[in-house]
């Protein structure tokens, strides 16, 4: 050995030793989560001394113990992060300087969730991913005001060790729930006693290595296989290999239910030394490895060995738990190049999810190792066997680290039938189709006992080119595909072709192996829409367990493709078959993941005899978010008992189960189990695993079950008149909007029953349920087993089970009116009294029914009467009639909201929240609040109080929307004299009818204030609309009546269309309203059999919205198109819609009769610009909503008009006001002048940029990118970002957003360059006081942009401020 190599070896050994010592040094990440509520103000000094005494006992440094301190009350605030201080003295000084946070409420659950998401993270210094123990020390002085169950469980799931310390009135059972394990809780009577537990807590923290392993919780499960080169060439390497395995095994938690290990040697052939279930202890493994003998032999067939471990070791019979989701890890140790090909076997291992490490020594080839390894990071190429030990620590660290695995896949035999569109339409595409089939076949493992392939072509009728049992060799299949001739034919009968392949191609006589459980897969390539029905044929395929994939060109009907496909994600769309390569990898991956099926017999045709018993399709929608982990078994128990009571059979009751959290996941569909297979359903329910995830998106889940479960393809019998029943089990409030999916489910006749815990929102449950009394509230899902009372059973629901402790009674309501008693409302007070009186008239007032209270406010709030003051309607009305205006200023809405929460909705004065009675607050405001409303408004929502706000033109829109339960619960009136116009909507809200799901912004009914617009009505005049002709024309006439017609005001045009469009009158035809109405009274629908909406849209753009026809687009007048359509267009509409948007024309789409929902949504300018009319009574409501939207629509691009939004950010981003909040410069400046700093740390600029892209520069928030408006972001930063802004900045640039970045001296200049769209758009100032220095330059660039755009589209400016 040379001198240099000796030095290198010594250095390497020293480095390994140093790494070993460092890895074994005590390291902990410790977070103190301190009660900062008003309750701890007097004891805060004692708390600080206690924390300091604990820190004194730690070894604080960057490489050892790290410390963070967080305070919480109603909100959570980081005092310093784990990486803020690197020395003990700095940490102690920071603790000395802590200031008490303050706050009335104590939201422990929210605080636990906060530290998990925002403190125990890599960006803030956590080393959890390095295996460093994560410790949370919680100190609290009273019970939590929110639920701790879910967040506490999530901490344990993330292996964060929580220690609970309670002082005074702290809830010990709550602390025990939070604590990592029993014994990790401490309770003292007062703050001075904290020092008495110091030594106990110190002993808990100062643990040896064994204890740390205990803290880290249950060891991760692993199945590990060592595949060793036993050829003659590697004989000298055996000692190093044995030591490598021994050391790795020493560090693993080897037990039957934890880590399992196998060893295989190979040369010309492989040999199992011991498999995964041979040894059940670490000691046995190490002993077996020590006695390992070299196999010997030549040549070295690594490819065959890889295939062997897949077929014989990574199998359940050998002890593999791959199908249970346990990570499968392979370590290949080889001394040279393989004598056979490794590519196929290596790819096959990757496809079943095995994480392969390729460790080469001596003569191993790098390219071969890279083929074998799961990732390039898993390749090691060492010069000699002896260096194996140098990489052992890194290998062991990986094995012990958290491994994310995909769901297990099953690879084996498959029967695959290609069904090719052979009609005339695909003649030119046929070579591309054949090439695609050949590519897919190339990726398969074709063989006699492996994959079988068949090809069928079809047009009017189908024909088999070759069957599943025709060829057993891949080259023969490929050659047969190459020789295919295009079939030809004018018609495309996809339904008949699907029936043909089910009965013939997937028949046993054609080579199908369905009786052996071999997956049956259909790949359909289609170039057009079917001329026959596909629904029944597709459903029959799925009943026979055939898994269809669909690939369609732009001429194919995507909805038809999704109907045929196994699920919608198995339907692919390409422009032409030349582009099919773009979806090839995804399709092949999905095909290979189709699991093996249970051996079965073909489903027999079931006779259509009506069953004697009740028929029902029942879907259980289960909350499986992180918070519901502990309740999940109880939920399954409930489902199980329900199923026990059902008569499960194809012609009787059908059952489906779907789990949801962030997104839904179907466990089984309504047609999965049939023919009296109740036991199969019960087994499936018992075998369900908790999905997990965050947050609760109930709206998305409801939309999913509507679109994909209550469908014929999934077994729904809706069109046969079978009742459709949805049972929702929820553990929390939805994070997304539920209103539209709820309405759509009700429209299709689904009966929804909603069951929620106390953390669920009662009003939300009632909104979801078919009727409010179908909503049930329980304390805990553990109560479900005791349930005995049946749910409502009239007509649709003749089943089930359960009674609950608290049942929300829809016949009871607590209603509080909070009235502006300041000078702002004095002129409208009589109207407010009359409005409230009218609402009260409609209520059922009684001590055990509805209760009412009235409160007035200005500087402070005063109750006129409470909820329990009166028990008769006459007494309430008399009191309202004699009520006097309070008078005074200022207007403190925040204070008033707190007052009604604490003093009016209270049980002592008649509030019935504890009985789950719905509680409503109606706020009337004639001006802007003089105090902060955000905290009180949030508190009302947390208490389940549903707030509706009614504001005049002097009220602040954003403030009203903030107070309201959702922004849609805000009603605007010009002044209180117009209150009566909103009475029907408010009354409907209280009665729980349809208007509760979608509240129109209120308008002045007598006259609509549209100053100037060009409005074109485009009516579907086809024969299908004749039955609705009178209602359609009345709809147009009523809109015209409510707008002011004139050359300088609103102009109107009318066009009809079917096959071709026809203009009834143009924008400049009439200048008087009477003339327009006179013409409309003589209009009849034109008739016609076909409907070409795309042609009609292009026609109105080019011939009606033109200057010669009266369009005033060049003068900046808004261009509005109102389309009424009754069915899906016969031509393509997408191009025409884009052309309208590019021209700045705002399109409102209204669907009637058989209109296609997706097309109506595609046509609409924005999600809020689409409407559906299902029955005659909907016309007035849609008209009101449409006029309201047009009147208040702030998204319409007015040429030369700029829009402004402001966002503040620190650790998260917060919207101050949106692009569509204000229409005038004065309003914007007024709001900017009143802005208060958001506060918070650290600065996450990346997250803020992402927020702006996703939430601000979007159409539903006022963004006008699709209308050509320039998108501009001005970002101000006072320091360096804690997260990376690179990705979000790149995405903003890709979206065409022009970003200016302004940084103070503490900001990172390189970061500013990355964020800005151009280096010239990055500015630097010493501090923000000096912003005026760059103002002129910035304004010059903004002005120049406006000139370049000729100021015709306007600009969207978003200001992102760091506070």
From TrEMBL:
Keyword Transcription annotated: no
UniProt keyword annotation of Ribonucleoprotein present: no
Localization per record: Secreted, Extracellular space, Extracellular matrix
Any one Gene Ontology cellular component term annotated for this protein: collagen trimer
Family matches, as PROSITE patterns: VWFA (PS50234)
GO biological process: cell adhesion
Pfam families: VWA, VWA_3
Superkingdom to which the source organism belongs: Eukaryota
Primary residence: secreted
Leader peptide range in chain numbering: 1-25
Keywords: Cell adhesion, Collagen, Extracellular matrix, Repeat, Secreted, Signal
Domain VWFA: 29-201, 223-395, 415-587, 617-791, 814-986, 1014-1190, 1185-1342
PANTHER family found in the cross-reference section: COLLAGEN ALPHA, COLLAGEN ALPHA-3(VI) CHAIN
Name of this protein: VWFA domain-containing protein
Organism of derivation: Sparus aurata (Gilthead sea bream)
């Amino acid at each position: 050995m040379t001198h240099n190599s000796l030095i290198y070896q010594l250095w390497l050994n020293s480095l390994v030793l140093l790494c070993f010592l460092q890895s074994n040094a005590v390291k902990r990440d410790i977070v103190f989560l301190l009660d900062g509520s008003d309750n701890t103000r007097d004891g805060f000094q004692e708390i600080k001394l206690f924390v300091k005494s604990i820190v004194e006992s730690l070894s604080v440094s960057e490489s050892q113990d790290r410390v963070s301190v967080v305070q919480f009350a109603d909100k959570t605030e980081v005092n310093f992060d784990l990486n803020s201080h690197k020395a003990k003295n700095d940490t102690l000084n920071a603790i000395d300087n802590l200031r008490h946070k303050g706050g009335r409420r104590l939201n422990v659950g929210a605080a636990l969730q906060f530290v998990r998401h925002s403190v125990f993270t890599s960006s803030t210094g956590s080393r959890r991913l390095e295996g460093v123990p994560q410790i949370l020390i919680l100190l609290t002085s009273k019970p939590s005001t929110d639920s701790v169950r879910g967040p506490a469980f999530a901490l344990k799931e993330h292996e964060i060790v929580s220690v609970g310390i309670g002082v005074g009135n702290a809830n010990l059972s709550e602390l025990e729930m939070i604590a990592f394990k029993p014994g990790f809780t401490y309770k003292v009577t007062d703050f001075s006693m904290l020092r008495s537990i110091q030594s106990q807590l110190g002993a808990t923290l100062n643990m040896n290595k064994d204890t740390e392993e205990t803290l880290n919780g249950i060891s991760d499960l692993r199945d590990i296989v060592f595949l060793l080169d036993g050829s003659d060439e590697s004989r000298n390497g055996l000692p190093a290999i044995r030591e490598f395995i021994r050391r790795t095994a020493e560090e693993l938690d080897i037990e039957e239910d934890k880590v399992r290990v196998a060893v295989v040697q190979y040369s010309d052939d492989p040999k199992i030394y011991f498999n995964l279930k041979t040894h059940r202890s670490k000691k046995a493994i190490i002993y077996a490895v020590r006695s390992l003998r070299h196999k010997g032999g030549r040549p070295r067939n690594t490819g065959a060995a890889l295939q062997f471990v897949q077929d014989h070791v990574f199998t359940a019979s050998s002890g593999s738990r791959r199908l249970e989701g346990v990570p499968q890890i392979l370590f290949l140790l080889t001394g040279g190049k393989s004598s056979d090909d490794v590519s196929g076997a290596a790819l096959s291992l990757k496809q079943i999810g095995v994480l392969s490490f390729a460790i080469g020594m001596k003569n191993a080839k790098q390219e071969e190792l890279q083929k074998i390894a799961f990732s390039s990071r898993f390749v090691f190429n060492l010069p000699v066997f002896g260096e194996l030990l140098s990489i052992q620590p890194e290998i062991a660290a990986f094995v012990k680290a958290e491994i994310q695995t995909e769901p297990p896949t099953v690879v084996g035999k498959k029967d695959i039938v290609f069904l090719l569109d052979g009609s005339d339409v695909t003649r030119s595409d046929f070579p591309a189709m054949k090439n695609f089939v050949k590519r897919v076949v190339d990726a398969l493992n074709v063989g006699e006992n492996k994959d079988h392939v068949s090809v069928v072509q079809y047009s009017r009728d189908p024909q088999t080119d070759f069957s599943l049992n025709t060829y057993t060799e891949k080259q023969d299949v490929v050659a047969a595909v190459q020789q295919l001739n295009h079939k030809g034919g004018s018609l495309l009968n996809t339904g008949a072709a699907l029936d043909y392949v089910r009965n013939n191609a997937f028949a046993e006589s054609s080579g199908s192996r369905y009786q052996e459980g071999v997956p049956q897969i259909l790949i359909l390539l289609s170039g057009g829409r079917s001329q026959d029905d596909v629904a029944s044929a597709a459903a029959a395929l799925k009943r026979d367990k055939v898994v269809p994939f669909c690939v369609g060109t732009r001429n194919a009907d995507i909805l038809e493709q999704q109907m045929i496909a196994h699920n919608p994600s198995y339907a692919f769309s390409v422009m032409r078959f030349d582009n099919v390569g773009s979806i090839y990898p995804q399709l092949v991956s999905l095909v290979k993941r189709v699991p093996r099926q249970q051996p079965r017999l073909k489903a027999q045709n079931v006779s259509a005899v009506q069953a004697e018993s009740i028929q029902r399709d029942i879907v259980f929608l289960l909350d499986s978010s992180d918070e519901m982990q502990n309740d999940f078994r109880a939920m399954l128990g409930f489902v199980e008992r329900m199923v026990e009571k059902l008569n499960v059979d194809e012609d009787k009751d059908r059952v489906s189960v779907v789990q949801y959290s962030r997104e839904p996941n179907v466990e089984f569909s309504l047609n999965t189990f049939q023919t009296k297979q109740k036991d199969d359903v019960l087994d499936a329910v018992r075998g369900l695993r908790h999905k997990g995830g965050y947050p609760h998106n109930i709206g998305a889940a409801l939309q999913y079950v509507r679109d994909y479960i209550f469908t014929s393809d999934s077994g729904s019998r809706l069109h046969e008149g079978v009742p459709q029943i949805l049972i929702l089990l929820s553990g929390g409030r939805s994070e997304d909007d539920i209103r539209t999916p709820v309405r759509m489910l009700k429209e299709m006749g689904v009966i929804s029953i909603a069951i929620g815990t106390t953390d669920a929102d009662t009003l939300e449950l009632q909104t979801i349920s078919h009727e409010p009394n179908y909503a049930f509230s329980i304390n805990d899902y553990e109560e479900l087993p005791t349930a005995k009372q049946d749910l409502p059973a009239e007509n649709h629901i003749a089943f089930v089970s359960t009674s609950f402790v608290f049942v929300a009674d829809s016949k009871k309501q607590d209603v509080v009116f909070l009235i502006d008693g300041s000078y702002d409302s004095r002129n409208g007070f009589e109207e407010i009294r009359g409005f409230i009186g009218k609402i009260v008239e409609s209520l059922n007032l009684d001590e055990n029914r509805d209760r009412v209270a009235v409160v007035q406010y200005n500087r402070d709030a005063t109750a006129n009467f409470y909820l329990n003051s009166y028990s008769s309607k006459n007494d309430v009305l008399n009191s309202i009639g004699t009520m006097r205006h309070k008078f005074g200023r200022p207007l403190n809405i925040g204070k008033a909201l707190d007052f009604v929460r604490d003093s009016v909705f209270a049980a002592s004065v008649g509030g019935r929240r504890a009985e789950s009675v719905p509680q409503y607050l109606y706020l009337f405001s004639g001006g802007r609040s003089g105090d902060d409303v955000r905290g009180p408004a949030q508190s009302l929502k947390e208490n389940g109080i549903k707030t509706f706000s009614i504001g005049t033109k002097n009220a602040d829109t954003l403030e009203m929307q903030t107070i309201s339960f959702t922004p849609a619960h805000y009603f605007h009136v010009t002044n209180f004299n117009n209150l009566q116009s909103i009475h029907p909507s408010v009354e409907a809200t209280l009665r729980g009818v349809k208007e509760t799901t979608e509240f129109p912004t209120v308008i002045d009914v007598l006259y609509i204030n549209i100053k100037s617009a060009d409005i074109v009505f485009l009516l579907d005049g086809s024969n299908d609309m004749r039955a609705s002709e009178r209602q359609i024309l009345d709809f147009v006439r009523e809109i015209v009546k409510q707008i002011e017609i004139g050359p300088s005001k609103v102009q109107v045009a009318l066009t009809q269309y079917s096959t071709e469009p026809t203009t009834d009158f143009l924008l400049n035809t009439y200048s008087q309203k009477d003339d327009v109405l006179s013409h409309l009274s003589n209009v009849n629908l034109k008739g016609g059999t076909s409907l070409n909406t795309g042609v009609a849209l292009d026609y109105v753009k080019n011939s009606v919205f033109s200057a010669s026809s009266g369009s005033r687009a060049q003068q900046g007048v808004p261009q509005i198109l109102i389309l009424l359509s009754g069915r899906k267009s016969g031509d393509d509409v997408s191009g025409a819609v884009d052309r309208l948007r590019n021209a700045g024309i705002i399109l409102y789409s209204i669907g009637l009769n058989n209109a296609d929902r997706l097309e109506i949504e595609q046509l609409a300018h924005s999600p809020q610009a689409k409407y559906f009319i299902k029955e005659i009574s909907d016309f007035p409501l849609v008209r009101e909503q449409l006029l309201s939207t047009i009147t208040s629509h702030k998204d319409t691009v007015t040429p030369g008009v700029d829009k402004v939004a402001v966002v503040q950010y620190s650790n998260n981003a917060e919207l101050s006001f949106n692009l569509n909040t204000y229409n005038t410069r004065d309003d914007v400046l007024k709001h900017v002048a009143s802005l208060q700093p958001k506060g918070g740390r650290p600065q996450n600029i990346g997250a803020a940029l992402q927020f702006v892209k996703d939430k601000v520069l979007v159409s539903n928030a006022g963004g006008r990118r699709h209308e050509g408006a320039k998108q501009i972001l001005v970002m101000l930063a006072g320091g360096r970002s804690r997260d990376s802004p690179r990705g979000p900045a790149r995405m903003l640039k890709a979206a065409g957003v022009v970003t200016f970045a302004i940084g103070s001296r503490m900001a990172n200049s390189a970061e500013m360059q990355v964020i800005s769209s151009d280096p010239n758009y990055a500015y630097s100032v010493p501090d923000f006081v000096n912003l005026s220095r760059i103002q002129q330059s910035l304004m010059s660039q903004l002005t120049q942009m406006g000139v370049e755009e000729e100021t015709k589209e306007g600009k969207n400016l978003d200001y992102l401020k760091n506070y």
